[in-house]
Amino acid sequence: MFGIFKNKSKEEKLQEKYNGLMKEWHTLSSINRSKSDEKYAEAQEVLEELVALQKN
User: Fold this and answer.
1) Which of 11, 34, 36, 38 has the fewest Cβ atoms nearer than 10 Å?
2) Inside any domain, residue 38
3) SS3 of residue 8 by DSSP
4) 21 is a domain residue
């Protein structure tokens, strides 16, 4: 009934984490290239987890 009390699934949590990392990556891409690359790599790891979770 109310979305306030609904617990998020692991898939939803991973998707939010991925979106946040991609936003950070985009912001850092014009400021600090090495940190940008680190965030992108971290986002790719989360994406792989998300894809594996969706396959199951």
Assistant:
1) 34
2) yes
3) coil
4) yes
* Spatial distance between the Cα atoms of 28 and 35, rounded to a whole number of angstroms: 7
Tokens for 47, please give them. Answer: 């994406």
Is 3 part of a structural domain of the chain? no
Are the CB atoms for 36 and 28 separated by under 8 Å?
yes
- Does residue 2 sit within a domain? no
Whole-structure pTM value? 0.83
Counted domains in the chain:
1
* Rounded Cα gap, residues 43 and 56, in angstroms: 20
For 20-36, write each residue's pLDDT tens digit. 999 999 999 999 999 99
> What is the Cα–Cα distance from 3 to 11, expressed in whole angstroms?
17
Other Cβ atoms less than 10 A from the Cβ of 46: the count is 19
